Amino acid sequence: MPDRQPTPIGAPGGPAPRTLACPLPRPPTLTTGPVAGIVADKATASGAPAWGRRRVLLLNTTFEPLTALPLRRAIVLVVCGKAEVVHGDPAGLVLHSATDSILVPSVIRLSTYVRVPYRARVPLTRAGLMHRDRYRCAYCGGRAETIDHVVPRSRGGAHSWENCVASCARCNHRKADKLLAELGWRLRVLPTAPRGPHWRLLAGVPDADPLWLPYLGEPAA
């Protein structure tokens, strides 16, 4: 007698399909004006969540800038009552959960004062140097795209705030490994090491939100 084949799950007369005991949570959604239902963690072309890369400026109760937080961490602080939203997203984006909605923050402020220990010299980074020189070439004043050592490293120049400047690609190529005196060039501004708590933050943030600038000691764009 031939073996009887089992009836497929879900077929008439077959066993009912099982459901997950703990269904996967639905991702939060974003709305902006009349556009609703946009999935917050919608992947970009690179496959990474677009909103997951966003940063939020965290201020002390005194409005002193402390650090740039991932958006998810900032949302947790606000929801738990440990921080308040100072500035929301310029586009008016809103995060929705099953029971609540919250404005996507750009700047938040702690509810309780945090003592910040003294911090030494600001580390030299490309982002920090570009902010210091305001993305302008130290030689011609044009739009800067690269970093140049005033005294080339091949000639003993140090990799320091005092010897590094923002430069456009054209000036960087023309200068090569020459000294300024050999070219007859002069610096528009003497490079110095930046000071202040916000510079440590800027050194690690390539693209600061324009809403942050008043809290970082710079005029808004």
Automatic annotation (TrEMBL):
The keyword Nuclease belongs to this UniProt entry's keyword annotation: yes
SMART domains on file: HNHc
Record keywords, A-Z: Endonuclease, Hydrolase, Nuclease
Span of domain HNH nuclease: 124-173
Domain of life of the organism encoding this protein: Bacteria
Molecular-function GO term, any one: endonuclease activity
Keyword Signal: no
Signal peptide positions (record): none
Name under which the protein is recorded: 5-methylcytosine-specific restriction endonuclease McrA
Organism from which the protein derives: Streptoalloteichus hindustanus
